[in-house]
Inverse folding.
């Protein structure tokens, strides 16, 4: 067996999502808040465009990094919404954002190169670095300082082997966005280390609350050349099952990633790409979903914060509540199991994201509002029973 893969843990998101599904087979009252998956349907015009293209016979290989109309629409979006002036010839359309990350990391890393991952971090960055033969270097940001990025933390982790720094804002799991001050820290770091690439996972970029704005690092001209931006359709347009994402980078990274793409995937499905073009005409639907997430956030976090021993900072973006527990000395995994059995709410333990210093959990609030309210009240009752 491949020794690198034997070092890899299974995806904790997928483990807990399937655990909830298993439990629901015998107990339909179980509420699954482990996976970050919008409960909304994909907007009709996207589905109709794909169906039309499919029935028109768009069922053959579509050789290339993505159909020109879709790549042009992505380039326009990045330029207008994220201030990323990009060359559409350096956009690669991928099967989901996860694959864009996989390709980007493989394009950049050589055996033994180091990748800095800011923790808490989504569950798949580290395994992907391992798959690429790299060495993950987890930088534990401090929950007592709101997980702020500091120059000291970055410098302490950086060696001559560091080749890539992975960031994700709006952040999964903490819900923090990238503020200007921290973008400045990142920019200074990149300028100081000219051999380091920055991979910016911006999959939640359209889901930001309270009229705030999360900085896209590729909008910084001094470092843009070394920023690989990844985004997709899953979260913002409720298209998780379509597996549609993309990356944009400099020519060198693009060409390297595209070679691996050719040998592992050949190309993306044509009719799905035709559907995805319509996503850029769904501004109203995207905004409607965002507003509903904001209302759900306020309700869900509000109930959780009313529970003694439980605290949840208001997420600035994405659709996750990152919740701290100070109950009976229980750790993240114990609380997760306790709530799973006693509240019948399945969330994710904070340790899955590398947070070992404080008992915490992540709950997705991309579920129906009534279900979320029920889940929060059940968590409340279960914790009150403990105290
Ligand atoms: N990204 C989502 C999550 O964190 C979906 C599952 C996954 O791919 O990890 O829940």
């Amino acid at each position: 067996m491949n020794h690198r893969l034997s070092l890899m843990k299974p995806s904790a998101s997928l483990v807990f999502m399937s655990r909830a599904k298993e439990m629901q087979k015998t107990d339909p009252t179980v509420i699954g808040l482990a996976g970050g998956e919008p409960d909304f349907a994909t907007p009709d015009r996207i589905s109709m465009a794909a169906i039309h293209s499919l029935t028109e016979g768009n069922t053959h290989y579509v050789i290339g990094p993505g159909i020109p109309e879709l790549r042009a629409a992505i380039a326009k979006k990045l330029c207008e919404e994220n201030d990323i002036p990009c060359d559409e010839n350096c956009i690669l359309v991928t099967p989901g954002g996860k694959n864009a990350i996989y390709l980007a990391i493989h394009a950049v890393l050589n055996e033994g190169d180091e990748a800095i991952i800011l923790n808490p971090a989504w569950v798949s960055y580290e395994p992907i670095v391992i798959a690429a033969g790299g060495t993950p270097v987890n930088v534990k940001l401090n929950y007592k300082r709101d997980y702020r990025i500091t120059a000291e933390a970055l410098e302490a982790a950086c060696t001559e082997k560091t080749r890539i720094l992975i960031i994700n804002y709006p952040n999964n799991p903490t819900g923090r966005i990238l503020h200007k001050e921290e973008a400045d820290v990142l920019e200074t770091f990149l300028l100081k280390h000219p051999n380091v690439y920055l991979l910016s996972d911006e999959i939640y970029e359209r889901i930001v609350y309270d009229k705030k704005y999360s900085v896209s690092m590729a909008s910084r001209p001094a470092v843009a050349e070394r920023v690989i931006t990844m985004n997709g359709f899953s979260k913002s347009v409720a298209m998780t099952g379509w597996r549609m994402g993309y990356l944009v980078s400099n020519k060198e990274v693009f060409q390297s990633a595209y070679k691996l793409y050719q040998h592992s995937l050949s190309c993306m499905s044509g009719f799905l790409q035709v559907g995805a073009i319509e996503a850029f005409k769904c501004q109203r639907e995207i905004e409607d979903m965002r507003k509903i997430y904001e209302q759900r956030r306020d309700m869900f976090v509000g109930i959780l914060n009313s529970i003694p021993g439980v605290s949840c900072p208001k997420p600035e973006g994405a659709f996750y509540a990152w919740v701290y527990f100070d109950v009976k000395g229980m750790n993240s995994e114990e609380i997760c199991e306790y709530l799973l059995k006693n509240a019948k709410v399945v969330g994710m333990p904070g340790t899955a994201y590398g947070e070992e210093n404080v008992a915490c959990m992540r709950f997705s609030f991309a579920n129906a509002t009534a279900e979320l309210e029920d889940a929060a009240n059940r968590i409340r009752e279960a914790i009150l029973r403990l105290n």
